[in-house]
Each structure stands twice: as C-alpha cells, then as structure tokens.
C-alpha cells in the first residue's frame, strides 16, 4: 500500500521549500483531518504518513501510505474542497508546510512544477486502481505483511535509526 510514486523531483523541492515552512511531527500525530478545510499542502521530507478515511459505518479505512517526497493534500487544495481523508504520522516526520494559496500561486507561476504535480496526482490515481484490484485479490494477512515491510523500509531509510537494531 506504500506509494510507489517517488514524489517531487529535487529541482521542485527547492521551489517548494522557498515558499514553505518546516514542521516536525511526532509519531501518531494528526497532520490534517478528513472533511477539514484544505488550508495547507505538506511535502514529506522524512517519515511515513498513513491516510485514513472514516466511513458512515464508523469504520476507519487506511487508504494510503506515503513516504518522503510525497505531497499530502494537493488534490483538495487544487480543487478547493475539504480533505478527503485524514493524514496521520506513523513515524516521526519532517514536513514542508505550505499554504494552499502559496501552492496554487506556485502552480500558476511555474508550468513545469504544475506538470510535475499533475504527474504525481495521476500516479496516485493509477496506484489507487492497482490497490483496489489488489484488495480483491489478496488476503488480510498479505496486506498486513506488506504494511509491515513498508514500515521497516521507512525506518531503515531514516538517518540515524535502524528499526531492526532496536528490536534486538
């Protein structure tokens, strides 16, 4: 379920970081809430973020798992609609936080940046279709194993940490 989309290219991260502030979020912290106003876009610099959606039955469903380079909240900000899911840090995260107004202005001023964001959002849609197909074809155990692999991979790539060494 981890996004395979590599996120923003290095050139564009420089563009974003000029208009953004740094935010450090501890594990298990809400970054934004489902149905909340889409006021900001976040770029994951470090850490792992899950996206959850509460359904009318009261059940919470994980709808995404994102790693460094991913842009959170972009679709809602572009559409000027509420966030469709909640973003919750799984590990400690470093995020670039940018106001929705600044993000939309960057899209208007930098066509190549707008194309890259469009590519990322199309990748998310593409991956979503594959994920829906995978849900129908895999057991709950297989999905859990995939989630655990993604968690270990994310921790192994965080500077100065090793999940496996802490488990020994």
- CATH-defined architecture: Sandwich
Q: What's the number of structural domains?
A: 1
Structural class of the helices, strands and pairings? alpha+beta
- Low-confidence runs of at least 5 consecutive residues: 163-168
Number of extended strands: 8
Radius of gyration over all CA atoms, rounded: 16 Å
Main sheet: strands, sense, barrel:
4 strands, antiparallel
| Name of the CATH class | Mainly Beta
Quaternary organisation of the protein chains: single chain
* Distance linking N and C termini: 27 Å
Helix content: 40-55%
β-strand percent reads 15-25%
Please tell me the overall pLDDT: 85
How does the overall form come out from the CA principal axes?
A: globular
Q: Helix segment count? A: 6
- Give the neighbour order of strands across the main sheet: 1-8-3-6
Q: Tell me the CATH superfamily.
A: Jelly Rolls
CATH topology: Jelly Rolls
SSE order: HEEEEEEHEEHHHH
Describe the structure.
The protein is of the alpha+beta class and 168 residues long. The chain has a single domain (10-158), classed as Jelly Rolls, CATH 2.60.120.10. It has six helices and eight strands, in the order H-E-E-E-E-E-E-H-E-E-H-H-H-H. The chain has helices at residues 10-18, 74-79, 100-109, 111-137, 140-156, 163-167, and strands at 21-25, 30-32, 40-46, 49-54, 60-66, 71-72, 86-89, 93-99. The strands form two sheets. A four-stranded antiparallel beta sheet has the order 1-8-3-6. It has a four-stranded antiparallel beta sheet with strand order 2-7-4-5, with no helix packed on it. Helix 3 packs across helix 4. The longest helix has 27 residues, at 111-137. The protein is globular, with a radius of gyration of 16 Å. Mean pLDDT is 85; it is low at 163-168.
């Amino acid at each position: 379920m981890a996004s395979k989309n590599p996120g923003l290219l290095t050139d564009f991260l420089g563009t974003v970081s000029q208009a953004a502030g740094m935010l450090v979020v501890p594990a298990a912290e809400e970054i934004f809430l489902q149905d909340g106003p889409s006021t900001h876009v976040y770029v994951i610099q470090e850490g792992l973020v899950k996206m959850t959606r509460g359904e009318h039955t009261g059940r919470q469903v994980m709808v995404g798992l994102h790693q460094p380079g991913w842009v959170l909240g972009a679709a809602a900000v572009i559409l000027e609609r509420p966030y469709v899911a909640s973003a919750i840090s799984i590990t400690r995260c470093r995020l670039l936080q940018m106001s929705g107004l600044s993000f939309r202005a960057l899209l208007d001023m930098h066509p190549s940046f707008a194309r890259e964001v469009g590519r990322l959002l199309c990748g998310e849609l593409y991956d979503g279709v594959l994920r829906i197909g995978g849900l129908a074809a895999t057991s709950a155990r297989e999905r859990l194993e995939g989630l655990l692999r993604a968690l270990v991979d994310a921790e192994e790539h965080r500077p100065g940490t090793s999940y496996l060494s802490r488990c020994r």
